[in-house]
Amino acid sequence: MNKYILSFGLLLLAYPTLAQNKMISKADLMANKLPENFRNPLPQFMKWLDDDRVILNQKIHPDSAAKNYVMDVKTGKLVVATPDQMKGAAPPTKTVSVKKADLFYKNGDTEKQITFDAAEEKNPTFSPDSTYIAYTKSNDLYTYNLVTNKETRLTFSGTSTSLNGYASWVYWEEIFGRGTRYRAFWWNPNSKQLAYMHFDESMVPMFPIYNSEGQHGFIEETRYPKPGDKNPEVKVGFVGVDGGATTWADFNAKEDQYFGWPVWRNDGSSLLVQWINRGQDHLKIFDVNPGTGAKKIMYEEQQKTWVDLEDRAGQRFTFLKNKAAFILESDKTGWNHLYLHNNDGSLINPITSGEFTVLNTELIDEKNGLVYFTARGKENTARTDLYSVKMNGSEMKRLTFGDYNHTQVRLSPNGKYFVTSYSNTTTPTKMTLLDGKGKIVRELGDSKGSAMGDFQIAKTEFIRIKSADGLFELPAQVTWPANMDPNKKYPMLVDIYGGPNAGNTWDSWSWNQTREIYSQEGLIHVKFDHRASGHFGKAGVNYMHRNLGYWEMQDYMHMAKWFIQNGQADPSKIAITGFSYGGYMSTYALTYGSSVFTHAMAGGSVVDWKLYDSHYTEKFMDTPAENPEGYKSGSVLTHIDKFNGVLQLVHGTMDDNVHMQNSIQLVSALQDKGKDFEFMLYPGGRHGWGGAKGNHFNNLKTKFIYKHLLGKEVPKGMLR
Prior knowledge:
720 residues, alpha+beta
């Protein structure tokens, strides 16, 4: 790990040279008008055709239009890509889509409507052999046979609380992930059978969300379990593609449990089902027979804190094609690593180990016994690199290079070459082509234009600050005011998210016109990450167990005080801003952390963990009955007597994730204490909003910064 602490004295040495360059005017920055040749457009990676040809979208000359080019990796020769090369798939291409609540099937250039009813079809998904389409409708599971043009209803129990193949809210939000669009069915590789989950939500409390539209408005009802509430009862079933009785897996639906994303074996002989207890500290992976529903345990893992059930649609384990084995991902050591297992679940060997975090398995080269993966923390916790390693765990090799964050790595199909886009805080993004052993083949692009060095841009540094207990080098990315006066103290804005394993501080280049303006206006802009943000593996995240709020705020307060003690930050203007978990942290900062923080802009905020959903909250906090003190100390409302400072609070009225109930309870508590604050509602807004209301929200924050931190009027042209 590259650890260092930046001293203010060293920082100032850089400024005299910068002062010799001219600034981009605030008017030009607001109009997004940059000097000529300030930035170069980088090629856009499109795809690999094969191991020796890559398609890039780029400009050959500055004045030419960007086109898709096929590059010969060995020679660098560019040829305009053909439509067939861009299409990739062999004709005819089959697609299915939902239009006006019905299914439309397209084969080549021919499209036809295949369903004709009032109910909306959802999540249409082709069978592996493309002869069937599976989908849900009115919470029942259906198939459509493309050979016979016949629709078959597979389940018959669908109601508003009985869901077949369609996930309940808490599973969609927290376990499967929003990208699944509530899909909870999975094709057998043999195309003859489907696995699906059945959800009974009848016992889950209803949460009403009021929509104010129209004369009378209406209530949107969501089955939303909060900590300690009943969760939906879930069953895993198997059904034939042409109908028939469902075979249920041998689980007790009444048990307090969760199921993760299941994965079929390559041959379709069985389904691997992830099971975890309500306390989320005991994971079991069962091998389930789709013919009988019988199950046998294949893998088991327990942790003192929690085991992540995994919301990345089945990436916990990957079956090999040419070996009776699979690769499993686990953070049981305190760091996320890869393990090779026999197909019966027995461990063969760890593939990776050490105090670093594996992020993604990029490619498995079974022929040569290699695994290519990205990881953070082996070189620097704030940077990502690409590595290769033998399946037996030997010969691990870094393939990327330099003190850079390699944010986008794209391997060719067999790992012969890869393209990387990389930067660090002070180096604009570049793109390079390398071979599979990490040797640079050719540079593909540099975003730094020839004129960038002629201008003074905001000085941005990546620094580390030792935690108060001396255990961690906490990362921060800070943008300093232009031409800083060492005898002056400046207002500081801390921009955070703050959630578990969800840091926002990376050693990467970024260009932001608004940040440039604030630098010229004399604002210190900082991104902080705490010990549980992911920089220090699961071992660091474990600090949050049963104690949300405490360590995050301890670290944030300490880091803010570092800037105050070094004489850069004005202690009367230490602001913090964030949304969702960041909103929680921002409101917590003006209550629990009000001895340091003076201003906050908080959006979509959790204010009491009893008000958020069961799965997420209990993973970290257990239930309120099991951990009453943790819930009490982590609540913003508990510390309302400490409230001090200037608060801007915003919330969408129809937020179905973090209910507006949170902000309303905080507003009520502040009113009861006679406290002043700002509160803005966004009617119809969910957990975020765009369009005109998005512009209004951004303007609201801009006005707050200028009024309370900069003490001046917003410049003309700054507002959207």
